[in-house]
Write a structure and sequence with these properties.
Bound molecules: adenosine-5'-diphosphate, magnesium ion, zinc ion
GO molecular function: 3'-5' DNA helicase activity; ATP binding; DNA binding; four-way junction helicase activity; hydrolase activity
Number of helices: 25
Number of strands: 18
Subcellular location: Nucleus
Strand content: 15-25%
Structural class: alpha/beta
Catalytic activity: Couples ATP hydrolysis with the unwinding of duplex DNA by translocating in the 3'-5' direction
Largest sheet: 8 strands, mixed
Keywords: ATP-binding, DNA-binding, Helicase, Hydrolase, Isomerase, Nucleotide-binding, Nucleus
Domain Helicase ATP-binding: 41-244
Strand order of the largest sheet: 1-8-2-7-6-3-5-4
């Protein structure tokens, strides 16, 4: 199973020897291997599965970071089968739970779940069974709301605990605990109560997406002490990544791309709004593709019909919002196209991760325009972006601090913008930095657009231009857009610009000598670096929005005018004879998961007016 990368980092808690968890000499080893074959039908373990199982069987708290499809479920389902008593599994979505239980029952493993929308009598039946001396269930799944809201359930768990029948607590999709993650679920934060009430029951937390800060958050909120962290590389060597300028002919471009590279193959096109999905599907059908759309506004029967058709290859392309994808295990997805800017790098990584599960090459193409950033930002601010099913209906309603949530969203989005505008660094490198993973770009082997370029770069000090641009924003009264600023700076004489001419006469045309695109790169860099802030305004009732640049006074005073230099990398005009070796040091400063200090380029002029297409 080629796509699963090797272990890159296993942190052992105090007193644990290096190879301890790989041992085949545990008292349960034989039973483990027999059941893995007989009950689950697996010939062997995948990377890290044996180690995780041993650690949790030993009674340690364990935190697992493993890419989607890596096989996390087995690491608690197998122990659940072997241990006496019952394993409690917290999972965010009833549909995911039902899917798991179906598989467990097929394998003759007694499992059940409790959720708020279940019949009262049915719930009572299950609770009664939990109370019995010979409880038949090995696994009990619940949603986090159930833990937060049901004292009755907690009492039953206590009773299990004191009878030593609560063998393990599993927190699936554990990143939902963290507000820094892309799938925050407030009720996950209350799960710390489990460790308090059941200190002797080992906890196993599982996730496919966690940055270093998310991991810290989760460990803390769950109250895990001395927990053992198993982390494996999130790099997916068989996926090829590229970012392509998005033009008005985007759908034609997509058609051409599929025709030339993946004709009649299976793929997903992620769109921002429901209307985008429908439009894209319609257009691609016209072009002759077997294509359908999928979004949260369709009824469940319709959705599952489309998903089944796709699974059976009756249609090969699905134009979907992020509502599509959870629990989808189709191995031969050959491409994932992003028609619009994703909301975060984590989300992007996960969405791309649905391609190439079979280990064969697959393409991930992102169509990017700066105007999409404005559009997504606006939609986030008014809560109109369709959420992944994991969080929909939760984060917005229950957020403890909506302001902070919006801030986090905007920060995540800006990271995505700088990912797109970066035309220098290896795409894998930038993505993996977000998971706290160091990736040696030379091992990309030219499987991303940036590594494929044969160019060399020069570093340029652009501090003076940056200062002029900030001044220009001030001179125009902090009420015009980025594209307006750029026009004035280049000396354009169009109508709107003329209006402001008298205030800006000193800097009007000051950037004439710069190469095309250079000023806009610098301007966007200033936004990404927080010297300038982009405020989105809804300008009229046609649903168009415009953005206005504001100056972050304090940051500008202390940074830009306080001696900080701004250095960006530019492609040099001389072609290098050898391919560029991306080293691990980023273009400038240090890369952190929160902010990327990276050079910026934009394919097109930024647009002020954006059609929102809200549906
Ligand atoms: P995750 O939760 O990490 O996304 P799952 O637990 O859903 O992944 O597993 C993904 C798929 O891999 C499932 O179809 C599962 O049956 C399969 N799988 C898991 N472990 C093994 C194994 N050791 N050998 C073969 N297949 C496995
Ligand atoms: Mg899973
Ligand atoms: Zn690369």
């Amino acid at each position: 199973e080629p796509f699963i990368p090797k272990i890159i980092d296993v942190n052992y808690s105090e007193g644990c020897g290096d190879r301890q968890w790989s041992s085949r000499d545990f008292s349960w080893t034989r039973e483990l291997e027999v059941n893995n074959k007989k009950v689950f039908g697996n010939h062997s373990f995948r990377p890290n599965q044996r180690e995780i199982i041993n650690a949790t069987m030993k009674g340690c708290d364990v935190f697992v970071l493993m890419p989607t499809g890596g096989g996390k479920s087995l690491t608690y389902q197998l122990p659940a089968l072997i241990n006496p008593g019952i394993t409690l599994v917290i999972s965010p979505l009833v549909s995911l739970i039902q899917d798991q239980i179906m598989h467990l029952l097929q394998a003759n493993i007694p499992a059940t779940y409790l959720s708020a929308n279940m019949e009262w009598t049915e719930q009572q039946e299950i609770l009664r069974e939990l109370n019995s001396d010979y409880c038949k269930y090995k696994l009990l799944y619940v949603t986090p709301e159930k833990i937060a809201r049901s004292d009755n359930l907690l009492r039953h768990l206590e009773s299990l605990y004191f009878r030593e029948l609560l063998s393990r607590i599993v927190i699936d999709e554990a990143h939902c605990v963290s507000q820094w993650g892309h799938d925050f679920r407030p009720d996950y934060q209350g799960l710390g109560v489990l460790k308090q009430k059941f200190p002797n029951t080992p906890v196993l937390a599982l996730t496919a997406t966690a940055t270093a800060s998310v991991k810290e958050d989760v460990v803390q909120a769950l109250g895990l002490v001395n927990c053992i962290v198993f982390r494996q590389s999130f790099n997916r060597p068989n996926l090829r990544y590229s970012v392509v300028p998005k033009t008005k002919k985007c759908l034609e471009d997509i058609d051409k791309f599929i025709r030339e590279n993946h004709f009649d193959e299976c793929g997903i096109i992620y769109c921002l709004s429901r209307m985008d999905c429908e439009k894209a599907a319609e257009k691609l059908q016209e072009y002759g593709h077997k294509c359908a759309f999928y979004h949260g506004n369709m009824d469940p029967a319709q959705r599952s019909f489309i998903q089944k058709q796709w699974s059976k290859d009756e249609i090969n392309i699905i134009c979907a919002t992020v509502a599509f994808g959870m629990g989808i295990n189709k191995p031969d997805v050959r491409f994932v196209i992003h028609h619009s800017l994703p909301k975060s790098i984590e989300g992007y990584h996960q969405e791309c991760g649905r391609a190439g599960r079979d280990g064969q090459p697959a393409s991930c193409v992102l169509y990017y325009s700066y105007s999409d950033y404005i559009r997504v930002k606006h939609m986030l601010s008014v809560g109109m972006v369709e959420q992944s099913p994991m969080t929909s209906g939760y984060s917005r309603l229950n957020a403890t601090n909506p302001g902070r949530l919006l801030e986090t969203n905007t920060e995540n989005l800006l990271c995505m913008v700088s990912y797109c505008e970066n035309d220098v660094d290896c795409r894998r490198f930038i993505q993996l930095v977000h998971f706290g993973e160091k990736f040696d770009s030379s091992t990309c082997q030219k499987t991303c657009d940036n590594c494929m370029k044969v160019t060399s770069f020069i570093e340029k000090d652009v501090t003076e231009t940056a200062k002029q641009l900030v001044e220009l924003v001030k001179l125009t009264g902090q009420k015009v857009s980025a594209s307006h600023i750029l026009e004035v700076y280049r000396g354009s004489l169009n109508q709107m610009v003329k209006k402001h001419r008298h205030e800006t006469v000193r800097l009007h045309g000051a950037g004439k000598h710069l190469a095309k695109g250079e000023a806009s790169r610098i301007l966007h860099h200033l936004v990404v670096e927080d010297f300038l802030a982009e405020e989105v305004k809804k300008s009229d009732f046609y649903g168009s929005v415009s953005s206005v640049l504001k100056v972050n006074e304090q940051k500008v005073r202390n940074g830009l005018f306080g001696g900080q230099r701004i250095i960006l990398r530019f492609p040099s005009s001389v072609k290098a004879s050898k391919p560029l070796k991306c080293d691990l040091t980023p273009a400038r400063g240090s890369l952190t998961s929160a902010k990327l200090n990276l050079p910026i380029d934009i394919p097109d002029e930024p647009q002020t007016e954006v059609d929102l297409n809200l549906s």
